[in-house]
Structures are given as C-alpha cells and as structure tokens.
Amino acid sequence: MERTQLPRTDLKLSPICCGTGHFGSKLRGMDLDALINAYRDDGGNFFDTAHCYAFWVPEGAGCSERAVADYIRRNGKGDLIVATKGGHPGATGYRTVEHWLSPERIAADIDDSLGRLECETIDFYWLHRDETALPVSEIVEALNREVKRGRIRHLGASNWRPARIEEANAYAAKHRLAGFVASQPEWSLAKKTKPNPDAKSDTLGGRANLFLEEPDVAWHRKSKVAVIPYTSTAAGYFASAGERGQGSFDNPVSRKRLEITQKIARELGATPGQVALAWLLHQDFKVFPIIGTHSIEHLRENTAATKLKLTPEQVRSLAASE
After folding, report:
1. pTM above the 0.90 mark?
2. Structural domain boundaries in the chain
3. Do 135 and 171 contact (CB within 8 A), yes or no?
C-alpha cells in the first residue's frame, strides 16, 4: 500500500487503517504479532484504537491500547501512526459520566490513554461521541489546551454530525485554533436498513452511532474533510454474498449493490469485498477505511483492494441503485 497524506496534517497514512477493537482480548500474543507484522509488511502504518476498547469483555476496557503499546515496546514504533478515541458517554461494563466531553473528562481520558500507550503525545485523537448539550466552543477550547500541552497532535470527530463538525471548525478557524481534520462515522457501500435518528428529535444527545447518509457524503465532498469509516466492509456483507450483516444491511438497495460488486469482481479478477472497499477508496475526497479482522488471509484480501482501479462508470454504477 502506498502512503497518502491526510489533508490538513503532516500525517502520511496507509489507505487502509487497522482497527484494534479485539487487540488484547480475542487477539493476543504471537497471533496478534503475526497480524500486525503482516499488516506492516503490506505497507500498513495506521492503527485505530480507543479508551473504552474492549469494555464488552470482563475487565477489557483499556486492553486494546495496552496491546498496541506492548507491541511497539517490543518491536519499535518506526513510522506507525496510532489514533485513539476518548469521550465515550458510557455503557454496561464501562464507566458512565454526566458530561463525557467536559474539559475534565477529556483531560482524564487523555491521561489514561497516554499511560496505556506509553507515549508522551498521541498522534491523532478522536472524540468518540458528540455531546450536543455542550457548545462546540467549550469542546474545541478544551481540545486545544491539550494540543498546546503537547499531549495530542491532530483532532478528529467520531459519530458527529457534519453540521456540528462544520460549526466546530468555523469556531476553530475564527479563533486560530486546531479543528477537526477527519470524521469517523460508520460507512460502507451497503445501505443501512434503519436511518440515523433525526438530529432534532435525537434524545440520545449525541450518544448514537451514526453512519454517512447521502447529504453527509455531499458535505464531505464539498468540505474535503476526510472520512475514516468503521464497519467499512459492512460486517462482511459483500464478502459473504450477503450472508453476514443481514440484520443491518439486507435490503433491496444493498442486494442490488451486491449483484453489481459481484459482476465487477468477475471482470477485474477480484473479490466482491475488495470491490466494495475500492469503491470507498475511489471517492472524490480522502477516505481511509478501517478494517478489523483476526485473519491474516482476510487482512491481505482487504489491503489488496488498494490495488484495484475502478473506472468512473463503475464507481457510479455501484451507488446508482440508491
């Protein structure tokens, strides 16, 4: 994989990001080392983790960050870029706080992550969720205090609506502060069966997982804010001929897109999963899909998607069934 620069930063990243949600829990020891080494051998250098990973297993919160640090301690960081997330509102098995994006909570999460990652500066820091009860000015100011302290370098917004990212970045620009350089929503070629909650009636106050809908894509196309999406393979929907991810993605639009990916895959001598990932990589703004796998075989299949060249007609046809 050839590195490409993340706009508005000095970071040169591999086009496929390695998600670490199960590092240190389901994936450990020699198996974990082998997967990371295979990713690096393919040119990968970009890891995405979070303060809360993997809270869904007993005593799992923080184990992903610790696993990444353990690997780096033993093998060296080299040109690896590690992104982590903080500011999660909470869930069963993970702490819950009233204001998860208060300056105090942001600082405390960064304290923890720095300690677990065994570093002085975090390359790329995401806010895991928005907290719409707080003004963007308070959030941006808190983050920039951490930038000035040298504890974080570049800022991203995960599960934030584009309108809030735009508002935050406008405030940052007006006050000559660092803004968000990328967004991390759920996004893939598949269409979600259920829509996002409406912003005006969102009683979760920013806690919901959000995926990109077409108006959001149009905003990114205009703003050129990069997207680093999770669930970028639609939980294996395309790779499994629609058998996986049915609860979230099985609908007429996704089934039509599956047919088209299968057709293009036959033409290119590729797999449908590779075609679906390549579609993300062929957008007219920067996209760095996050993949998560325990299998070296699947990892290499996914990273090979970066070599596929889709024509503009193929890119259009894959999304034309909307």
Report:
1. yes
2. 4-249+276-308
3. no
Q: Is residue 67 classed as helix, strand or coil in its secondary structure?
A: helix
Count CA within 13 A, CB hemisphere, residue 214.
Answer: 5
Task: Determine the Cα–Cα distance for residues 110 and 47; give it in Å rounded to an integer.
Answer: 17
| Tokens read off for 90 | 């909470």
CA dist., res. 289 & res. 296, Å (int): 17
Q: Tokens 């996050």 belong to which residue?
A: 290
Contacts of 312 (CB under 8 A, 6+ apart): none
CB neighbourhood size of 98 (10 A): 10
**pLDDT tens figures, 60-117:** 999 999 999 999 999 999 999 999 999 999 988 899 999 999 999 999 999 999 999 9
**Whole-angstrom distance, CA of residue 180 vs CA of residue 173:** 10
pLDDT digit string, tens, across residues 157-190: 999 999 999 999 999 999 999 999 999 999 999 9
DSSP per residue over 258-312, as a string? HHHHHHHHHHHT--HHHHHHHHHHTSSS-B--EE--S-HHHHHHHHGGGG----H
CATH class of 4-249+276-308: alpha beta
Contact 159, 130 (CB under 8 A): yes
